[in-house]
Amino acid sequence: MRSSLFYQTSCSLWRRQRRPTAKPYRCFLSSASFSTADYDNGDAFQSNPSKVKIFDRHLKRKQRDRAAWLLRPNDSFVHAVAENLIDRLEDCKKTFPTALCLGGSLQAVRQLLRGRGAIEKFIMMDTSYDMLKLCKSSQLDSCNKNIETSYVVGDEEFLPFKENSIDLVISCLGLHWTNDLPGALIQCKLALKPDGLFLAAILGGETLKELRIACTVAQMEREGGISPRVSPLAQVRDAGNLLTRAGFALPGVDVDEYVVRYKSALDLIEHLRAMGETNVLLQRSNILNRETALATAAIYDSLFAAEDGTIPATFQVIYMTGWKEHPSQQKAKSRGSATISFKDMQKQFGRGS
User: Fold this and answer.
1) Among 55-64, 107-116, 218-227, 313-322, whose mean pLDDT is lowest?
2) What share of the chain is helix, strand, coil (3-state, %, to 5)?
3) What do you get for the CA distance between the two ends of the chain, in Å?
4) Which helix (H) or strand (E) holds 260?
5) 3-class secondary structure, 255
6) What is the DSSP letter of 173?
7) Closest CA to 189 of 100, 115, 110, 121
8) How far apart are CA 62 and CA 252, in angstroms?
9) Please, are residues 199 and 85 in contact by the beta-carbon 8 Å criterion?
10) What is the 8-class DSSP label of residue 104?
11) Is 77 in contact with 41 (CB distance < 8 Å)?
């Protein structure tokens, strides 16, 4: 599916009827954690279980702190992704009393729950204390006040939860910044109870392809070479393999492509900062020449600007669904157990063709 959105701060999507209920909130901080790899340092923020480090997790936490101050309350793109992700709960007859939301678009997910999944206890976890503080202080929909909400400062690569303790894990636009994505998925599966559900939305490899092209051309012209300015992201073909490798049952992957229009390249950068989605590559260049930046904006406009003067930015979103194994789930038959061959089926149904 390909969607087109024009970014406006006053835009909001999929509003539904609200139902007044009430229940107090409480906040706690957990420090215990487990990881899929051995490490000696107890500080999850200063040590990483991944052998290959791609992203600077320190910088990502600082960007999340900054995003807490720049966050736009009615971000049409973020709300569209969160709505499409949470909408999958309506296809499930099962209820999820305890749910965990990991990083990314915490506030949008919380606002758009609206009773879906019959969640009773909702745990919001982020590396940024400022982001959690914002989520706690922000005004929530009245229909969600019956949900007991907790706030945990933690890292997706070191989940501070016991095995078989969570019914539902949601991650909206957050896991693509982890150095050890397979390990993070494995930890999510371990934290889930049997027949628990994992829902995630991550940015795919086609995201910001226009910006990548403009940056590459500008750097070649002004600097005679290129350096990574846009972070590498997972491809669609890898998402299913990641779910299978983590041990999820009934894995499912689908893709949406959103085209958001901005007045200029500077507005795009400001939006990325507000979402906490700017570059955190360890091998990034810390200096961006003014001439290169201006050339990037000019090339972006000359190559991709529409007749109305706006520029498009493509966001490819990969939705991932997986269940923790349970005896009640349907399973594939063993090899050789079929009672009819495809050749016979072709003879039976292919006569009229």
Assistant:
1) 218-227
2) 35, 20, 45
3) 31
4) strand 249-262
5) strand
6) S
7) 100
8) 33
9) yes
10) S
11) no
Q: Let me know: does 122 contact 150? Beta carbons within 8 Å.
A: yes
Beta-carbon contacts of 246 under 8 Å, excluding residues fewer than 6 positions away, are: 182, 185, 186, 188, 189, 322
The identity of residue 265, as a single letter, is: A
Letter for the amino acid at 310? T
Both structure tokens of 130: 């400022």
* Gap between the Cα atoms of 119 and 128, Å rounded: 24
- Can you point out the beta strands (E) in the chain? 2-6, 98-102, 121-126, 148-153, 166-172, 192-203, 249-262, 311-323
The per-residue pLDDT for range 172-203, each reduced to its tens digit, is 999 999 999 999 999 999 999 999 999 999 99
pTM for the structure as a whole: 0.80
CB 163 within 8 A of CB 190: yes
Rounded to an integer, what distance in angstroms lies between the CA atom of residue 36 and that of residue 136?
Answer: 30
Distance, in Å, from the CA atom of 262 to the CA atom of 18, rounded to the nearest integer, reads: 32
In whole angstroms, what separates CA 78 from the centre of its chain? Answer: 10
Q: How far is CA 41 from the centre of its chain?
A: 27
Tokens read off for 261: 């229009």
Q: Token pair of 42, please?
A: 């107890």
Nearest residue to 174 via CA among 74, 250, 61: 61
CA-to-CA separations, 334 to 17, 48, 323, 331, in angstroms, rounded: 47, 40, 20, 9
Residue 223: name the closest of 291, 272, 167 by CA: 291
